[in-house]
């Protein structure tokens, strides 16, 4: 177990407030690094509704690194084609979401459907395996910070908890952002109020082979989507502006009957329901001293296009390795790159989800989030030519590795370590070699592969979150540049071996 340079009165290294998918992802990533975490949740259990149900390709790559991709794929399923209905008569099916086949460099082709409650439970399962837990019944009421840490107080609990750092993953209406006094800038995407509910239908009421859509003359469309891996459907409908939306079981049944050809009796159960108005808003800042915002606490999306949950999970993935590095001795300045990198991404994803909601763009390649990059980040150092296929700040592609069938670069990257990769630098086209005798820290693993077009010929220092930090050509440039990068940005942590795998 790594020894952290804790302040004398620190109870934990990091307090994470809110056990949704963002908080759970962050806790998983921190615990596997040997970080002492308090994951505080004000409720008595995890969130019970579907809400976000799309897992995008890049998020599946994150889950792959956390040891969870196979479980998610087994629990979920692909999005079905859409089937429009008019007066009880089906029309011609179509696809709202563009399909994408897996490729060598992008192994998770399309979107996976999985209700949010199951996403949370799979993450909790992984957290438990790693020795972590959720502290239920912890409602945050007070937060003060100083130069050494953060003190947190919880309703109905004597005393306080002292943490080196704290992260608010408690949603748009959560306590952390409010206690910090950080504003959120944005507005309404669509003034029509909406209802979302998880319902059970009588056998044969609708086939589970399609995502059923019911256009409404007053703009009050409805949709019933079979939730993969469950017996439920997600019901979504819009109401005219100004409507007071009720969420009780009978109100949900009445809404389904009014907007589809199904009688109320065909709805056999209503497991969960919520009313909302689609908004897009961005926190004015993601960091205040030793406290950070992630997920819905930092950005609120329209559900269209499935960007909110995915952007949130990737917030946690970006912040996790940086907190771990600073706790191990890296300069505190590294933490400022969290807002530098993620706030720009969140702003772009807010724009995308708004355009999808308004029908201005399709749910296509952009929504899969594989093209997101940090090229402009202060952490990205590109020393190859401008025409190189892979630049510092880009996502590191997957690909074949070694002689064993099915062995992949993602197998090499998986874990909290860094990777130093040489591509196509052998003396012959077929030779696989890491030709430079480098002195690298223990937590940087060195590997070499033959020529591979998505990378191009060169050297690559790959961050724990799967993005390229530094690139070198290996010709006429100092291959020790990777060592210099680590020394500059990680300091003492450059020589600290990470826990976990």
TrEMBL record:
Q: Which residues form the FAD-binding domain?
A: 11-352
Its name, as the record gives it, is FAD-dependent monooxygenase
One Pfam annotation reads: FAD_binding_3
Name any cofactors this protein relies on. FAD
GO MF annotations for this entry?
monooxygenase activity
Q: What are the Basic and acidic residues biased-composition ranges?
A: 375-385
Q: Which organism is it from?
A: Streptomyces evansiae
Q: Which NCBIfam families match?
A: PRK06184.1
Keyword Oxidoreductase in the entry? The reply is: yes
Q: Where is this region: Disordered?
A: 375-401
